[in-house]
Fold this protein.
Amino acid sequence: METLTTVFFYLMSILAISALFGMIFSSLKKSILIWAFILFCALGGIYFLLNMSFVGAFQILVGAAGTLCLVAFLMFLTPEKINRAGVCFKARIFISIFSILLIFLSLLWAIVDNYLASVLDFIITINKNGLLNVVDTIGESIIGNYAVVFEVTAVVILLVIVGTAMVGVFKRNEESR
Amino acid sequence: MSVIFNIGLYHYLILALILFCIGLWGVIACKDLIKVFLCVNLMMFSAALNYSAYAVYVDPEKINGVVVAIFIIVFGIINLVVSAALLISVFKYKKNLDVEKITDIKG
């Protein structure tokens, strides 16, 4: 079972990382499909591996279905010629790669350092059973401890709906002139 | 070798770190605004993966990390919706979504 978990984790990790590279380097249509299907399925699989099937299903449903519809609209509303913009290979790109590599190595060093400390001191105890999988607990927690955040999220979503509609209305008025 | 094959908290953290750094590089390197916003979303989702891994391994009795991860996913989708509307609006004025050709933000 442990071997199966290991194989699944590395498979999903390689799938997610390769999908991300494919999304950056391929054309716009392919990158959106890669982003919507492969990447979200890989991330959902990792959530399932973490014994969080609710979040995994949420990620796959919201990510793959919702954003695919949204980005498909975006794709159909824009013509073909903008799909040619790819990755710029200039001198600044090497500077960005160097700086991001620096960030990566520093954070990796922090993680590995903590890992060694935890191995020596047994700080972090691994316990994968618990309440994470129960939808009732998540719902009670959202309504209970996180009620304010939930309400703020609802207001933000309402503002997003109104703002997006306003952008569309403004656009139509400008076109009618 | 057991460090590699026994999957634990740090494997998830390193995976989230790799996804975050590639997403950051995509934000800097991509010329297409749609890809830039997709990479920003991916950085948010890697943060959600971080929260979830901590929720499972460090404090499995409580549900805080899971709720935060759900909120991050919701806000990521909201971000995508707003960015889609703005992209369409920018395209109507500029007829282009290349970041090097959009130099002024006011139409």
Chain B has a mean pLDDT of 80. The helical segments of chain B are 2-5, 9-29, 33-57, 64-94.
